[in-house]
Specification:
The complex is a heterodimer. By secondary structure, chain A is of the alpha/beta class. Chain A has 5 helices and 6 strands. The chains are: A alpha/beta, B mainly alpha. Bound molecules: guanosine-5'-diphosphate (GDP) and magnesium ion.
Chain lengths: ~180, ~700
Amino acid sequence: MGNYFSSMFDKLWGSNKEIRILILGLDGAGKTTILYRLQIGEVVTTKPTIGFNVETLTYKNLKLNVWDLGGQTSIRPYWRCYYTDTAAVIFVVDSTDKDRMSTASKELHMMLQEEELQDSALLVFANKQDQPGALTASEVSKELNLVELKERSWSIVASSAIKGEGITEGLDWLIDVIKEEQL
Amino acid sequence: MPPLDKKIKKFLKDSVRIAPKISSKGELTELRTGLVSPYPQTRKDAIKKTIQQMTVGKDVSSLFPDVLKNIATNDVEQKKLVYLYVMNYAETHPELCILAVNTFVTDSEDPNPLIRCMAVRTMSMIRVDKILDYLETPLRRTLQDDNPYVRKTAVICVAKVFQLDKQLCLNLGVLTDLVSALEDPNPVVVANTIASLTEIYAMDSTVINLNDLIQSHVSKFLLALNECTEWARITILTVLSKYSAKDSIEAQDIIDRVTAHLQHVNPAVVLATVKVIIINLDLTKPQINDPVMKKLSSAMISIMSTPPEIQFIALKNIRIILEKYPELLTKETRIFFVKFNDPLYVKLEKIEILVRLVDASNIKQCTILLNELKEYTREFEPEFVSKAIQALSQLAIKYSKESFCNKVLDILLELLERQDTFKDDCCIAISNLLRHCPTSTQMVTQACGLLNTWVEPELILNRDEAKCNYVWLLGQYPDKFSSLEERILGFVENFRQEDPLTQTAVLATIVRLHTRLPGTILQTILELATKETIVIDIRDMAMMYWRCLSIPGGDELVQQLCNTAPPAIDNILDTFPPEILKKLIQELATISSITFRPQATNAKKYVRPETVVKGKKLDELKNIAKNEIVKNDEVLLDFGDDATEENNKNTTTLDDLDDLFNFGTVLPKESNSGTNLESDFNKLGINGGRQDTNTTSTSTTTQDLMDLF
Ligand SMILES: Nc1nc2c(ncn2[C@@H]2O[C@H](COP(=O)(O)OP(=O)(O)O)[C@@H](O)[C@H]2O)c(=O)[nH]1
Ligand SMILES: [Mg+2]
């Protein structure tokens, strides 16, 4: 009986409320690829995103509303329009792009300053691990100064969107945090 | 696992029922919260409210990013709402639309044709070049779409893209796709395609050969005609009217295929059909009792039962058609009789039609119209009565019999006795009647008898044309007027204020009657006409008379010159010159048929309004004006930049400038008579536009001023 109720609740509640997740990062980091990896489990050929892609997916009984925002400099100012009610941010880094690590770091910290994102969890994908010369997750973590982050649940996961490695692990962690902290 | 009561509480909080409602006030902040709400229903409500606010004219553009977030949804209704919003702001906030590009591209592959169509349509509306790069794939895809609804939209989009970026359009090669869309099995797609091609052709006539396309697809158009919507039908009919049939058989075929559309309820379809038929009639040369003529006339009659605005357009078109086929509506005169509740503009047009329509060989019809027009002269609207008076004289001269003219004269004289207004109109009409029946002494006596009762005719009459006619009558029938000298003196005293026609008439009449008048009048008028008028024709004429009068035997020469009988007039209805008529027939049912001015072939169309307002043209004008002032540094005039924001403002400034220059120079009436010159004496070759006249007069006066200093 109790079980019956709780599953009913879950159902009702899952279908009502969507959890909003943003995928951010510099252009070419692999955001769109990750989004569609999550959505259809395949690698899609991408074109630089102008504007955004958004997909709704059900993951572990939760309805996720995942936003992949274009990473070009001209579009970054609009990121903030999407911050409200964001449960979590997935920040994607191209681990081979050493030149732009500092830019990525700057954008990340600037974004985390935002009032509206104070309560959201942060998952960093150190992406493109399949490429030779990719920095490891801990190297990326250092480049991004992640240790500085206080009072925020965060994690960094090494991933390859192309091979599909690390993505689910990262998302599992994220969902657990969201369930625990925000539901 | 949290305790059950906590869970219930949470459930209640999050359930749809207590999902936050948007109040009807629609405050921006409230809307924004609603738009980003985690509850789908609340978001949708918020979008609806936002659009509601938008439609009542409130600026909700600040919500753009938040509304846009909702575009990605499987809910078709919601998607439509967001597209509605995006389209509304696409033109004013193009930079924001960038955020939607990816969605557009995705949507152009949506399984729902409606969404594919909205995506490509919206995309082609946004004036940002960044978007255009992303447009290629969706546009190509939708041009080849399985669904005709999508294709018919995509073909229009090609024209939009062409307008935004011609080069890109050429590079993409979508024009080829567009041309092949003429072969589409769906009639609406064909209609839209040809409409799109026509638009593109109007923007740049070098990229496609529209005429060839029309010639080679006529059968296609004729097939599509019966199956498409009324608006597409108008497009196709308009295109068909540009087709030149090879021979009378083909022309007859086209006529037969379109005739059915004469009965359409939409007057635009009817007019477009009329046009196609009229153009093809040239080849088939039907008799007046041909069934097609009957059908044409009943189609026109049917338009006469539409609202007045449409009637007006129909009347204008009918007037053009009548000039080519005068017998077409002869039996239908009564339809055009003025109804008491017709608006003035319809009444005036109806009179124009009536006098043209009436069969001059049919006494019964002419008499009926005569009585009808007589009734009109008793109406209260002055313009209407003026027109009726004019029409009476036109009718009389058209019917031509003296007795009939006499009847009209009686009506006019009676009218003049009854009321004080309309002296101008009656004077002109009477003068025309007398010129038509120059030998009828009875009419002359009657008419002049009444005109003779007017004291100070130079003040009673207002219009140039009326005054000049009156003066001509004085010269033609001097014995019928008492105190001739006094009357003429009145005009002489007023000479400086008169317009060119009257000035000419006064001069000619005095010279003609100089033996009956004191010599001083002749002397005065010759001096006035040589020194006080700037109209060159009058000055030359006066010089010539003067010269003739001063040579020995000159008197006789002048008598000979003046007493040649003017040719009798037998038509005072305006007609179009043949080549203009030909163009107007081609352009039936367009704006040309209202203005009676054919489109200029080289006129630049599609000049964007903003470039017209802010662009070169204004700057040029401004510079011309500024240069004029700089040249003449004694004139201090504040000609700040703000004075030239609007076109009309600018021209008035130019006009003012003219007046300013004219003031105090030796030629006080220049700008006025400049225009008259242009209209009345264009034989002289002074037939430049108003602008030209202005510029010339400005520069000559500037020259004069310079000379003065
Ligand atoms: N080798 C490799 N390439 C990747 C990976 N993820 C994305 N890419 C490639 O990186 C490019 C940019 O990816 P995209 O998802 O469009 O990046 P976005 O701009 O962040 O959305 C594409 O060519 C992807 O195929 C990865 O894990 N490994
Ligand atoms: Mg992307």
